[in-house]
Design brief:
Length: 97
C-alpha cells in the first residue's frame, strides 16, 4: 500500500520551504533557495515538486509505503533541510476520481 501526501511550503517573501504537506522556509537568500530545491529534489519520496506564485512557496507531492514512513520522512529528512520553518501535511482520505 502506498500513502500519498502533499506538502505546501510557505515562508517569507523570498524564502523557500517544502514537503508531504506544507513547509515554510526561513532563509531568504538565493543560495538557501537553491540548496533547498536541490535537496528536496534528491528525495525519492518526492514525486512532484513545484515552485508557486504567492503562498505557499512550494508544493511537494510525496509517496511513501505507510503513514509511519511518511512521518519519518517529514520529521527525519524534510524538516532537517536548512531553511524549512514549517511543514503542513495534507493526506488523501479517499481517491474519488
Amino acid at each position: 500500500m502506498t500513502s500519498t501526501g502533499t506538502s505546501r511550503a510557505t515562508g517569507h517573501a523570498n524564502a523557500p520551504a517544502g514537503a508531504g504537506g506544507t513547509p515554510r522556509a526561513g532563509g531568504s537568500d538565493r543560495a538557501t533557495v537553491l540548496a533547498f530545491e536541490e535537496r528536496a529534489t534528491s528525495f525519492v519520496e518526492v514525486v512532484e515538486f513545484r515552485r508557486m506564485f504567492g503562498l505557499p512557496d512550494y508544493f511537494l507531492r510525496v509517496a511513501t509505503e505507510s503513514l509511519q514512513h511518511y512521518e519519518s520522512f517529514v520529521t527525519d529528512m524534510l524538516e532537517d533541510v536548512p531553511g524549512i520553518a514549517r511543514v503542513d501535511s495534507h493526506l488523501t482520505m479517499k481517491h474519488i476520481k
